[in-house]
Every structure is written in structure tokens, then in C-alpha cells.
Amino acid sequence: MFSTPFAWLLFSLAVVGLLAADFAIFRGRSHVSLRRAGLWSAIWLAIGLLFGALLWVTDGGDVGEAYIAGYLLERSLSVDNVFVFALIFAAFGVPAAAQQRALTLGIVGAILARVVFIAAGVALIHMFHWLIFVLGALLIFTGVNMARRQEEKLDPERNLALRLLRRLMPLTPSFHGERLTVHENGRRIATPMLAVVVVLASTDVLFALDSIPAIFAITTEPVIVLTSNVCAMLGLRATYLLLAGMIERFVYLKQGLAAILVLAGAKMLVGDWIEVPVWTSLVAIAIILAIAVVASVRSPGAHEPAST
Prior knowledge:
By secondary structure, this protein is mainly alpha-helical. Helix content is 72%, strand content 3%. The chain is built from twelve helices and two strands. Strands 1-2 form a two-stranded antiparallel ribbon. A hairpin with a 2-residue loop joins strand 1 (181-184) and strand 2 (187-190). Helix 2 packs antiparallel against helix 9 (222-234) and helix 2 (34-59) packs antiparallel against helix 10 (236-243).
């Protein structure tokens, strides 16, 4: 399907169009109901899976199966972005009306970061196969560390990108709507909104270091890795709007994501000696997420009011 530049052009235009539509749908809304957010989360999930079905028809079952497994993997790992996005917005006190633009710019930054990391990662793995073992060990370490981490903490002042921004431009103490910069006393000054976007983008670079190696456990085919990552990021805004107010209720979700990372890392370590079918990874991801969600719902803390 992606054997010609024209196909890539169509895919790129479709991504830009979907991002624009997503921004237009939620623009200007300071509050989005859980029902509406849930509906759009389901719509984005359907779009991602339909694209997988299209690949299945045009490129064969192996390609379609690998895409769907990679898409569900990246979609589940993107939930961790939601946790950190909520922490960043809380740390900066981002007004609800301004969060929509911050989310849009954060998602665009996430997609661009993944394109760069995927291109570099695929090239390096093809040149140095032993990197597969390094990435597998890194995923296991990350998963174990995530499972042991009791509470997510965020200190924006430690963010190197934010400190660099403050050296380059002065920062206003208050928000100016959705504006990233303003003119004061004849000079250009950054607003806290620009600081939020910088922290979101730089933080997602760290997420890319986890999620992209994870999909290499399924396939190193650039087309599948890239398209599954991009499609998973497209639904990130709706996922945030759906889960932001219920994060504390999913008490075992991080353990589920940690288990997925460990599983992906183990698969990379034994891949040269034990061939694990793609459908096995797909089933394992679904089972782990189902167990994490059911355990969270049955947890006593799941029925307590969630903090904003």
C-alpha cells in the first residue's frame, strides 16, 4: 500500500485533516462530558482498526495483524501520556479553556518526535542487530521501575527544555488565553502556555524512548511502526478528556502497562531463538489490559470521587 510516494502523501494529508477536525470539534470547549469524550475515543479506536483492516486487505494478513497488534500496544502505552499530561496541567495551573490548544500542540509534538525516533531506530536496528537486546533489557527495566513507582511526581523546574526556554525568553507570570507569546514593553515574552507546550513536547520524547522500542518487539517494518504510532497518537486528546477525571480510579492500570513493557522486552530478548507469533502478543496485551481494568473497577478506591 505504501510502495509509492503518493500513498505516503495521502496518509500525511489524512493525518493533518484528522488532527484539524479533532481540534475543531473540541475547540472553545472548557468542559467536555464523559459521554462525548467516550464517544470520540470509540470513534478514534474504530478509525485506527479500520486502517488496520485496509492494510490487511491490501498488503495481506501478516501486515494487518502486525499493525493491529502494534496499534493496540501503542494505544495502551499512550495512556501513560494521559497521566503525565494531567500532572503537567495541574503543575502549571492551565485553565480548562486553554488545555485544548495545549493538547493539540502536544499531540503534534508527539507525532513529530515519533517520526524522528522511528526513522533513527529502524536504521540503527538494521545496522546493529544487537541493539534489539539492549532495547529489550531497557523495556524490562522501565516496566519494573514503573510497577514499583508508587506515586507519579512531576517537578517542571527540573525540565531541561523549560530551563532553556527561560534562558532564551522571559516568562510572564499569568496566562494570556491560548497565546504562546505576548508583546510587553516592546519585546516578545513567553507565556506559561508556551512553557506547558515545551514541557509536554520534551516529556513525550521520554515516552517515545519507551513506546517505540516496545513495538520493535512486534515488528521492525517501518511502515507498520510509523502508521501504528501515528494512528495511536490521533486519539490521545479524546483519551485524555475521557480519563483525566478518572485517573485515580484506575489504580492498577500502571501495573498493567508495566507488565506489557516487560512482556515486550522479554520477547525482544528471546526473539532470535523463540519465534512468538504476532497474534500471541495481541492476545496478551488484551488480557493484561482487561485484568488491569477489571481489578481497578473492583478496587475499593474505584468508587471514591476522583480528583480533578
